[in-house]
Amino acid sequence: xxxxxxxxxxxxxxxxxxxxxxxxxxxxxxxxxxxxxxxxxxxxxxxxxxxxxxxxxxxxxxxxxxxxxxxxxxxxxxxxxxxxxxxxxxxxxxxxxxxxxxxxxxxxxxxxxxxxxxxxxxxxxxxxxxxxxxxxxxxxxxx
Length: 143
Ligand code: CO
Prior knowledge:
Layout: E1 13-22, H1 26-37, E2 41-47, E3 52-59, E4 62-69, H2 75-83, E5 86-94, H3 97-106, E6 117-118, E7 124-128, E8 138-142
Parallel strand pairs: 1-4, 5-8
Antiparallel strand pairs: 1-5, 2-3, 3-4, 6-7, 7-8
């Protein structure tokens, strides 16, 4: 993006991509969102290297991302064991994941991923550590 407003960090968020919620029973959570709010599933995927199965429900141009673990040692399994069900992370869209990640690292922000990696549905993603982000796990999402 170019224009009059160019932030010093050089990698601002463009939109909220998804709000990720960890659940024990993916199908039960899907049915609840469908029946209570008329949400609809637009994508479902198992991301093996993260040990999660996810369902994306559309909310305008953004998504609710319901997450459930596929193995006991996945990070989502550990999250559920220690924190219980609930808000897991927020995904923000960026134009250039590598550039935004680098800008954050240059600013001293602790990141979980040192370089961008493949996310679900063909995206490129990187996570910012919650300890550097006022307690919220942040995912940078480049479509
Ligand atoms: Co996510």
